[in-house]
Design goal:
By secondary structure, this protein is an alpha/beta fold. It is built from 14 helices and 15 strands. It is globular, with a radius of gyration of 20 Å. It binds 2-succinylbenzoate and magnesium ion. Keywords: Lyase, Magnesium, Metal-binding.
Length: 368
């Protein structure tokens, strides 16, 4: 593939609205933009999306920079790769660090698709022309949550996901259902409950939730399987699916009925597509998760969500959901509840260099 250089840009931007969960309130987002260049001047783009602190996964911006700079990038520059599929074996001796691998892998796949003059989604068998958009509400009180739902409804989002926690769930869900008895609603607990809460969780069945995401331990499969037998609401797994192997075990155990696929959480394109294919085979619906990310990562998500198994609207929202301005051109927009899947080469979006540089805090270049 003739990779001649790789650059990392640490970017930072404030969120338009604070994003609150029971674990962390995010008001400012950092991410690492990865550019992989070939000798013909083409650029492949990836975005690594750990948070600044390890509240969601164990990786952070700093650990990710370390793994990229000291391990992954030297490996890629030292070996001549013929096809991005080779990354999996090239990285076999580096455990986990999924977000670092996913970000660099995205850039290599984007470059490869551009060299092949193909849309990235098409490389993996994507067939959808549009992707159904869903949105996340993570406000610090129920009044603000209701106001956000009202605003997002004008854009036509097809599914609303509310962050919940043990201490306020019934109050928040009652209030939302009082005002919006029929909206497609789901709840994400980010591991706010334990198995001792089964009786409490049974009460949430009355809210007609599409699903409840990750109610129990972030690394648990067994207790989710026990819980799923006790509640009507389908369980969707997020944090506990970090690999194809996890997905396989979750399906064997019956730990949930739905899986949220985030390529950043599972280590990149190949692992994400393998999980998707397994779920299609086993008739488990999947949807594309989000990471409060910028446009490059969103563009990869849109390409992933164009695969046929993504039958449920995911956490794929517009650039303007989180940002005053974004790093892709055109920005990602939601119209009548859908995002149009691009048909250009690679990720199908140009990168807005000016905006990217305006957000860049630090940049580093690595040459072969
Ligand atoms: O648990 O799905 C989650 C954001 C960051 C980390 C974890 C999660 C989320 C979201 C928001 O729920 C997804 C998005 O809109 O990007
Ligand atoms: Mg989640």
């Amino acid at each position: 593939m003739k990779i001649s250089s790789i650059s990392l840009s640490l970017i930072s931007a404030p969120l338009k609205l604070p994003f609150m969960t029971h674990l962390e309130t995010v008001t400012k987002r950092e991410a690492i933009v990865i550019e992989v260049r070939d000798s013909d001047g083409r650029i492949g783009y990836g975005e690594a999306v750990p948070f600044s602190s390890p509240w969601y996964t164990e990786e952070t911006i700093k650990t990710c920079l370390h793994i990229l700079e000291d391990f992954l990038i030297p490996l890629v520059l030292r070996h001549s790769i013929h096809h991005p599929k080779e990354l999996e074996s090239l990285w076999a001796s580096i455990r986990r660090n999924s977000m670092a691998k996913s970000g660099l892998g995205q850039a290599v796949w984007d470059l490869y698709a551009k060299q092949q003059e193909m849309y990235l989604g098409q490389l993996f068998g994507g067939i959808r022309k549009t992707v159904a958009a869903g949105v996340v509400i993570a406000a610090d009180d129920v009044k603000k949550a209701l106001k956000q739902i009202e605003e997002f409804a004008t854009i036509g989002y097809q599914r609303y996901k509310i962050k919940i926690q043990r201490s306020t769930d019934v109050e928040v869900l009652s209030e939302i259902r009082h005002h919006y008895p029929d909206i497609p609603l789901m709840a994400d607990a980010n591991s706010s409950y334990s198995l001792g809460d089964i009786e409490h969780l049974k009460r949430l069945d009355e809210f007609n939730l599409q699903m409840i995401e990750q109610p129990l331990g972030h690394d648990d499969l067994m207790e989710h399987a026990i819980l799923q037998k006790e509640i009507e609401t389908p369980i969707c797994l997020d944090e506990s699916i970090c690999s194809f192997h996890d997905a396989k075990q979750a399906l064997l155990l019956g730990s949930g009925k739905v899986i949220s696929i985030k390529m950043s959480r599972v280590g990149g394109w190949i692992e994400a597509v393998n999980i998707h294919n397994l779920c299609v085979e086993k008739e488990i619906p999947v949807w594309c998760g989000g990471m409060i990310e910028f446009g490059i990562s969103k563009a990869h998500n849109i390409a992933l969500a164009s695969l046929n198994g993504f039958t449920i609207p995911g956490d794929v929202s517009s650039s303007s959901r989180y940002w005053e301005y974004d790093i892709v051109d055109p920005e990602i927009i939601v119209e009548d509840g859908f995002i149009t899947v691009p048909d250009g080469v690679g990720i199908g979006f140009e990168v807005n260099e000016q905006n990217l540089r305006a957000m860049t805090v630090h940049q580093q270049l690595y040459k072969s």
